Amino acid sequence: MEISGKVAIVTGAGAGIGAALARRLVAGGARVVLADLDAEAVTDVAESLGPVAVAIGGDVADEQVIRGLIERAETEFGPVDLYFANAGIGGGVGLTSTDQQWLAALEVNVMAHVRAARLLVPGWTERASGYFVATASAAGLLTQIGSAPYAVSKHAAVGFAEWLSITYGDQGVRVSCVCPMGVDTQLLRTGFIPRDDVAEAELAVKAVTTAGSVLSPDEVAEVILAGVADERFLILPHPEVLKMYRHKGSDYDRWLDGMRRFQAALQA
Predict the structure, then answer these.
(1) Boundaries of every domain in the chain
(2) Measured between alpha carbons, how far is residue 38 from residues 84, 153, 190 in Å?
(3) Model pTM score
(4) Considering 83, 131, 150, 168, which one is annotated as catalytic?
């Protein structure tokens, strides 16, 4: 996959990984539609990139907003070649998470991907060309201590990306799933902190920051686009996640015991 001349949509592009992806896509010769719930922030990012980037503010879990992104891309630049489903939220913490927090995590972290694929895949299979990049998390392969909605929704995001690749991979649709650990973004800094259980939220953040290095969004974006260039399904900005994932699969009970010990150490 060469990105030069391609048309891309990036969600969650007002800051963090999404903004870094947009910058690298434009630098590589792509034209980009940026989306974010923070309309002011995403507009600032788009304006900094010049006429090859436009911004739309809105909830990218809303099908009408996604439809608007695709229509804007087609009007401004042409058919969409790549869709980066990058927007994500932390959700709640443990069993105290409300139904509203669970639903919000599932909407943004999973259903936003499903709805985008519904709108894009028919055209991609007709053209036998298209690329869907889902930003999940190492939590989708392992787990997230301190946040049940995040862990569960990211597992679902990985599962949907796998299904999408299996179902449409022979029809020209390529899929990548990005599973980083710690990234220096607003999500890591404040995304797990609800008003009712700060201690549990701090445990979630500590679990991420002590498990490995915290990368910059630019470092992660570079790894993502290298993975897209190679058309790799699983993109791991933290390579050690693969070793952890293999360890989990080889002895599930031992892995669970180790995670409980890790949690106890963090709490201590």
Answers:
(1) 7-267
(2) 17, 22, 16
(3) 0.94
(4) 150
